[in-house]
Specification:
This protein has 3 domains: 136 residues, Rossmann fold; 181 residues, NAD(P)-binding Rossmann-like Domain (Rossmann fold, 3-Layer(aba) Sandwich), CATH 3.40.50; 83 residues, ACT domain (Alpha-Beta Plaits), CATH 3.30.70.260. The chain has 13 helices and 17 strands. The strands form 3 sheets. It has a 7-stranded parallel sheet with strand order 9-8-7-10-11-12-13, with helices on both faces. Strands 1-17-14-16-15 form a 5-stranded mixed sheet, sandwiched between helices. A 5-stranded parallel sheet has the order 3-2-4-5-6. Helix 1 packs parallel to helix 11 and helix 5 crosses helix 7. The mean pLDDT is 95. 1,4-dihydronicotinamide adenine dinucleotide binds next to helix 5 and helix 7.
């Protein structure tokens, strides 16, 4: 079990994380090392010996054994959306919360989708490629305004609802379908079924997560329900659309086009080739999973994860952590000592901690506990004479995994 009472942490940021993160953490008085590369296993193992916090992007893998050999590591940030590069269960068992930045690129995706609606309506992809080849395709055939057309949004979450707002500004009518009841923004309307949405929309844009229920959500039968001449946009997950069925719907002329940013199999890096049955089909825009890839999103990711680091290191807030019980205890007693304890989730832990507080003649002014299957996380504000002794005794409990005094 580990215990500490430091305020300045040694923070390691890898893989060229946007410098705004470093600046925010330096302002808090932490020591920050920013490296451009993703260290190999051996180098990473050594670096982790000397740091309390690590921030990484998608290339650095934090495996169970690397985590087990990092005695000071107390906090991890994935400066991206995905978190599968970190062994989340191992980090949880060690009392290490992992944060990511799920919503920093929402707007970037929404803007790209709107651009694609217009590109599809005007066949801009094909006309652009023809002009590059030296062909002059000046004609109004098949080109339409988007004003007054209907956009059907499947999945009205963060991205879907942003798309809704931007689309209405272009004069589109917006319908949406979600499995959860959602407040319609602006003049948008919810519909009761996917089938109804597909039948009524000129453009259908998918914004659902990858779940068992959304895999193959748009197969041959669903594509058939779409209006003749309508177009499909997928910037959600590659598993959601049956690509051969979509290719057939385009080849047969049932759909007038598609914009696809995500694929069932995507190249692991820019040096690998890319193959898809959709290549070469008319009015089909293919992009390499770049919906969320903008400089603004990178900066916003830097700020979002740095803010989570600060909230955890200062106050023990874990809201938004992907592997940890969610907890945020407001600071109502500025003079109190705040202590945070991660423990094995077994009966009686809170009782043992509270007994220590009363043995020390201290007074609990605020306390919050959150648990998951493996661990419990408690944050307390205590009026206590000897905070060091409190830290020592709580961290010595057999159930304690990690205990710290917060500044
Ligand atoms: P979100 O979680 O905020 O919204 C998803 C919505 O889909 C929720 O409202 C949920 O209730 C709804 N939903 C779930 N299952 C459904 C179903 N079977 N039918 C209808 N609605 C369903 O997620 P967010 O942030 O809006 O992201 C949406 C998708 O976009 C995700 O798949 C995400 O991975 C992807 N994404 C893609 C990016 C890119 O670069 N192309 C970048 C960022 C996110």
């Amino acid at each position: 079990m580990s215990s500490d009472a430091q305020t300045a942490r040694r923070i390691l940021l890898l893989e060229n994380i946007h410098p705004v993160a470093r600046e925010a953490l330096l302002r808090e008085g932490h020591e920050v090392t920013l490296l451009a590369h993703s260290p190999d296993r051996a180098e990473l193992g050594q670096l982790l010996q000397k740091h309390d916090v690590v921030g990484l992007r998608s290339k650095t893998r934090l495996t169970k054994d690397l985590l087990a050999q990092a005695p000071h590591l107390a906090l991890i940030g994935c400066f991206c959306i995905g978190t599968d590069q970190v062994d989340l269960a191992a980090a949880n068992a060690l009392g290490i919360p992992v944060f990511n930045a799920p919503y920093s690129n929402t707007r970037s995706v929404a803007e790209m989708v709107l651009a694609e609606v217009i590109m599809l309506a005007r066949q801009l992809g094909d006309r652009n490629m023809a002009a590059h080849r030296g062909q002059w395709l000046k004609s109004a055939d098949g080109s339409r305004e988007v004003r007054g057309k209907t956009l059907g949004i499947v999945g009205y979450g963060h991205i879907g609802s942003q798309v809704s707002v931007l689309a209405e500004a272009f004069g589109l009518r917006v319908l949406f379908y979600d499995v959860v009841k959602k407040l319609p923004l602006g003049n948008s309307q919810s519909v009761d079924s996917l089938a109804e949405l597909l039948r009524r929309s000129d453009f259908v844009s998918l914004h659902v997560p990858d779940t068992r229920a959304t895999r193959g959500l748009m197969g041959a039968a669903e594509l058939k329900l779409m209006r003749p001449g309508s177009a499909l946009i997928n910037a959600s997950r590659g598993t959601v659309v049956d690509i051969p069925a979509l290719a057939e719907a385009i080849r047969s002329g049932h759909l007038s086009g598609a914009a696809v940013d995500v694929f069932p199999e995507e190249p692991a890096s820019n040096s690998e080739g890319f193959k898809s049955e959709l290549q070469g089909l008319p009015n089909v825009i293919l992009t390499p999973h770049i919906g969320g890839s903008t400089l603004e999103a990178q900066e916003s990711i830097g700020l979002e994860v740095a803010a989570s680091f600060i909230a955890y290191l200062r106050d023990g807030h874990t809201l938004g952590a992907v592997n940890f019980p969610p907890l945020a205890l407001p600071r109502q007693h500025p003079d109190a000592t705040r202590i945070a304890n991660v423990h094995r989730n077994v009966p009686g832990v809170l009782g043992s901690i509270n007994s220590i507080v009363s043995e020390l003649g201290a007074n609990i002014q605020g306390q919050a506990l959150a648990t998951d299957e493996q661990i419990g996380f408690v944050v307390m504000d205590v009026e206590v004479q000897d905070a060091g002794e409190l830290l020592k005794r709580v961290s010595a409990l057999a159930t304690s995994i990690r205990t710290s005094l917060l500044p």
